Amino acid sequence: MPRTLLIVEDEDRLRNLLHCYLEREGFRVLQAKDGVEALRLARHEQPDLIILDLMLPELDGLETCRQLRTFSDAYVLMLTAKTEEIDRVIGLEVGADDYLTKPFSPRELMARVRAMLRRPRSTGEAPSPPPPLRFGPLTIDMARHEVLLADVPLRLTNLEYALLTVLASAPGRVFTRAQLLERVWGHDYFGDDHVVDVHIANLRKKLRDDPAQPTFIITVRGVGYRFGDAR
What we know:
Helix content is 38%, strand content 21%. It has 8 helices and 12 strands.
């Protein structure tokens, strides 16, 4: 079955152009002109990936993304005509997986889309599921694709979950940003490595990990991150 993509863009010409291009690449493509329509389609059609413009009528892209994350784990690629870093950071903080600044080439968009869709949405079936990883109050059950903090399930995005499992699978090992980008985003990702820092910050918030004195995700200055072995 072809993967389903939802384009949320109020500019008719760009939305129709993206629709034709992505449909020609073999995807099932849906369209929405605003955030309200996007949320309705996302609930009913359950797309695999959503291309979401930041500036939308009715409900802007940030608020649309916030509401999406209450019921959908679809990948979100946010489009923005703005160049200020704060807009990109806020988009990632509310649950977007990546961003693309307008103007962009169809080839660049396609590369981002394919890289995202290659990331596993779940751990998949395995002959011998790995035992849960336990670090004090934190439990990471990769067989069930579940993370618990003090026995309370955490709602993580796909990228947050992937980052956490990469780090926690090798406690004490230092991963550079480049290594995390390759492991989680894919070897062909060519965006800004700052996305790693933003998703790490989001993870720490959900893990209630004090960035000044972290228990789980520890910054190694000038290098990257490691997972603290708090067993």
